[in-house]
Structures are given as C-alpha cells and as structure tokens.
Design brief:
about 15% helix, alpha+beta, 13 strands
Length: about 210
C-alpha cells in the first residue's frame, strides 16, 4: 500500500504496482521496481560492474577528503557519489576485465577555483613526501588565503594520508610524514586548493606517482 502525502499532487510513500515512492534528503522520488532478469550477468553488466569496482577501490580510502573536494557537486547526491560519477567517465583506462585507474586524469577535488601552478612531489627522506608549488595567488580568482588540499593515496594498502587545511597558497611547500611501513611503496600524490570560507574548490592536480623513501 502507498500513502500520498500533501494531497494528490504530493509525494508518494510506498508501493503502487511496480512503482515505488519515497523521499531522500527531502526530495520526493518515484522509481520503477526492476523486472526479474533472466541473465543478470550479461557482458555489458559485467563490464560496468568491473569499472564501478575499480573506481570504488580508488575512492574508498579518501571518503572524508571527498566531502570537501566534491562538496560543490553534491547536488541531489552525496560527495562520494559525485566523485564516483566523474571518475567513472573520466579516469578509467583499458578494457574489460583489465581496467586501471588513470591517475593523472582522476580528480579528488573539483571546482572552478584557480588550480595548482608547477606542483611537484618527491621523497628524499624516509617516510616523507615533499610537495612544492608556485604562488599564483594573483592570477584569476586565486587568493593568498586559499588553503592547500593535499592527498597521498597508497593503493596497495588501501589507505590515504591527507589534509583539507594545508599551508596557504603563497607558502608554496609542505612535507607530509607517512607511516614507516609506507617506505618503498608507490603512492599517488594530489594537490588542490579550497577558499578560506570553503565556498570555492579547485580541480586537483596529480603531482605524480612517487616511491616513498
């Protein structure tokens, strides 16, 4: 049985035939209950699931970071789902079943704030990553008060080390200390910026794949 709220034109809660109504984040929705599928593992379905699993594996270690990085695109969806949607279409290489993440084209933050100028990342000390960038706070909408967003992803360990309130844009440098067990691991380094009031975010820049000293 379904309940129609707020009169005949209001939201529907429950099931009418194969139509299911509900509310998510205050938004009324209707969806069709899927019919039973004789073969739920068609080539196309397996292909899409393989892509989805690869991007999920990439993003899961940085869920909290994405709440800042993709906050501007969390419109009628979560920040994580916004990041999933973007990276599914823009950051997957290969063909089924051998998909890989295209780290240089993947985004862990997205927005129209001025991005990174001449960012670099390297590791010269044990379990540390040194990151540098040029001060471009006079260009476009970049400001000297913008804070750096830094994320270091360790895919093999399914972990990330990050800050959403790093040094200001003019500082131009930061060193992140990693767990000692990261020594010898290959990590992916991303840098972006967020405005002081949090209303603007830049696209992240992949600074490279770095072997931790």
């Amino acid at each position: 049985m379904a309940i129609i709220n707020q009169g005949i034109l209001g939201g529907v809660s429950g099931k009418i035939g194969n139509v299911i109504g509900g509310t998510w984040k205050g938004i009324d929705y209707l969806r069709i209950k899927p019919s039973s599928v004789a073969n739920p593992k068609t080539e196309g379905q397996l292909d899409q699931r393989s892509k989805f699993a690869k991007v999920l594996f990439f993003l899961q270690p940085m869920t909290d970071f994405l709440r800042v990085g993709f906050k501007l695109y969390a419109i009628k969806m979560t920040e994580f789902n916004a990041a999933m949607s973007y990276n599914l279409f823009n950051a997957v290489l290969g063909s089924y079943p051998n998909y890989t993440i295209d780290y240089p084209n993947a985004l862990v933050s997205r927005g129209n704030l001025k991005g990174v100028a001449n960012g670099t990342a390297n590791s010269t000390s044990v379990a540390e990553i040194d990151i540098t960038w040029d001060d471009n706070s006079s260009n476009g909408n970049a400001l000297a008060t913008d804070k750096s967003l830094i994320l270091i992803l360790n895919p093999d360990k399914k972990e990330s080390i990050y800050t959403t309130s790093g040094p200001l844009r003019p500082t131009g440098t930061e060193t992140l200390v990693l767990p000692n067990e990261y020594s010898g691991d290959l990590v992916e380094v991303y840098l972006g910026f967020v405005s002081a009031d949090g209303t603007k975010v830049s696209n992240s820049t992949h600074l490279g794949s770095v072997t931790v000293a």
